[in-house]
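A quick word before the example. In earlier lectures we treated sequence and structure as two separate objects. From today on, think of them as two lines of the same record. Here is DNA-binding transcriptional LysR family regulator written that way.
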Amino acid sequence: MDKLKAMHHLCCIAEVGSFSAAAKLANVPVSTVSRSIQALESELGAALLKRSTRHVGLTEIGKIYLSESKDILAAIDRAEGRVGNYQNAPSGVLRISALPYYGECRLLPLLEGFQARYPQIVIDLELSNHTADLQRDGVDIAIRGGSEPDGRIIAHRLVDNTHRLCASKSYINKFGMPQTIAELSLHRALLYRSPAQVWHWHVESRGAWQRLDISTAQISNSIRVIRQALLTDQGLAMLPSWSIEEEIANGSVVWVPLPEIVSTTASHPAGSVYMLYQQPQYTVPKIKVAVDYFKEFLQ
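And the structure line, produced from the sequence above:
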């Protein structure tokens, strides 16, 4: 027995006073309404209706059951309405996990415009170098650097994250531009530390990657900190273009022309920055509009 349908049929009978009129109101055969009410009364062990040749009315217990049934059916209608609104209007909490400096540099400037467009979405933003598990950690969108992830999640490439050797123009004016790998021993390095390791600099020699002989000025897990040390002439750094594009454009930072250097071993390339999300979750309005918005403005 479909108890919800039986409740609906009972409401129809109470409204129109007969089985035939209730069947017409519910758009079902009279026999369906009759069987539905009989099954409901049988399960409850109580008569809900008083039947006569001219009229069908409610018993005392039938009136009580009718009142509760109306409340239940109204609650279901409200719940279904909320689901419908949720599917049509993006809303709810959107959890984003992003690389700290990329999040500060590229993502934060977009959030004001995003929330103006979608005011019912609440942004919950975590800036962290630790890799988030989208399903386990309840993260809707993650922005991470590295090689392309496996096929279990959608990975949309946002920008190249290859690290290149650079220096401030004033540093080069003070200490000179290194022209060879050997000349790097006269300089100091600003090194990045990931959650797994310090990214020492390497150079390929005789088919293998060798760690460079260069003094270390500073180590940090923050690109912001390394960038600031670079701009204050404390050493050379390996940074991705997106982190210093403005300084490269205005000439205050220059690339050091030693392209064979990498900031970790060749088996751990810097790769790209990706926006990650689960394919089934793309149907959720808040996630769909966010993914589309960030694709448009972060690409």
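Notice the following. The chain has a mean pLDDT of 87. We will return to this example when we discuss secondary structure assignment.
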